[in-house]
Amino acid sequence: MKIIHFIVNPIAGKGKTDITLQSLSKYFEEKTYHIAVKYSEYKGHARLLTQQSVIDKADIIVACGGDGTINEVASCLVKTKVVLGIIPIGSGNGLARNLKIPKQLKKAITVIKTQNEIAIDVGSINGKYFFSNTGFGFVANAILNFEKAKNRRLISYLKAISQSLWSYKNNIKYRFIIQGKESVFCPFLVFVSNTNEMGYNFSITRSAKLNDGFLDLIIIDKLSRIKMMYLAFLFLVGNESKIKEYSYYKLQDATINLQNNELPIIFQLDGELKRSDAIDWQLEIHKESLRVIGENS
Q: Are 157 and 21 within one domain?
């Protein structure tokens, strides 16, 4: 018998999820599956619920929510035999899109029941796992503005990006050591990705793959306000690499040192805003360390 636990964020998306024990029982036969449903009540609760499900020997733990919920659940499953399933009911759904998991509940359940398992890479920054992406500078500022929005929809995300384009300024220097070479930037944007999908069908790391053993790093150095507007246009047409301030790396690890002491610094981790007083940062890839149900892109 296959034991499957569902960790549900009841306020994800529009907060109208219909994922209950009763509704799921229609799809999972009692002779074949034992299912349980748990609801998170606050940020960080999904992690605690997942840890208990691991203790309870669940074979598959399904994260039902957005990228933040997926991060909490998946972080507990790295380097274990427990398999991650996803029912995307959040806003961006970057990892789910990359794994070709549909938003429709019935279709997502069909994917879970097929149990097509693949092993994917996992990124970490100062020991915190990320499964889609992380970033500093403009990308973190955009998330800061996005979290102030009343609802998490595409239009709210676009407004947050627009606000950041007009207001964001960076005076922090970053010293990078990548593949033994040192570079110093005062970056507009630092973006590290494990996938070719940011969410909402946006991408700036189109060649990234979930299990190629590399993280994809984009650094865009300091820009004038006019050039920021030009960059926004280039993003829309998929040609952001045209500007000379653009740098792209594929790497397995890197060290970042902040040259200024404007702390705490904000960064985003799988679409969630984080704050830290750290000056030294370590990026790493953990090859094929998470088992997940989906399709390899």
A: no
pLDDT interval class at 3 (50, 70, 90): very high
* Mean predicted confidence (pLDDT) in 265-285: 94
Structure tokens at 118: 């693949």
Domain end position, chosen among 115, 143, 165: 115
CA 36 → CA 19, 29, 50, 130, 134, distances in Å? 11, 13, 12, 26, 31
Whether residues 241 and 279 fall in one domain: yes
- In whole angstroms, give the CA distance from residue 286 to residue 211: 10
C-alpha of 264 from chain center: 21
Tokens of 259: 């040259």
How many Å apart are CA 74 and CA 72, to the nearest integer?
6
- Residues 112-168: tens digit of each pLDDT: 999 999 999 999 999 999 999 999 999 999 998 888 877 777 788 778 888 888 888
Indicate whether 185 and 274 sit together in one domain. Answer: yes
Query: Nearest Cα to 30, choosing from 3, 8, 54?
Result: 3
**Which pTM value belongs to this model?**
0.92
Residue 230 lies in a domain: yes
Please tell me the number of Cα atoms within 13 Å of 185 on its side-chain side.
Answer: 20
Distance, CA of 234 to CA of 94 (rounded, Å): 21
- pLDDT of 82 > 70? The answer is yes
Burial category of 119 from C-beta neighbours within 10 Å (exposed 0-12, middle 13-18, buried 19 and up): middle
Is residue 262 within 8 A of residue 175, CB to CB? The reply is no
Question: Domain range holding 264?
Answer: 128-285
Residues 235 and 199 in one domain: yes
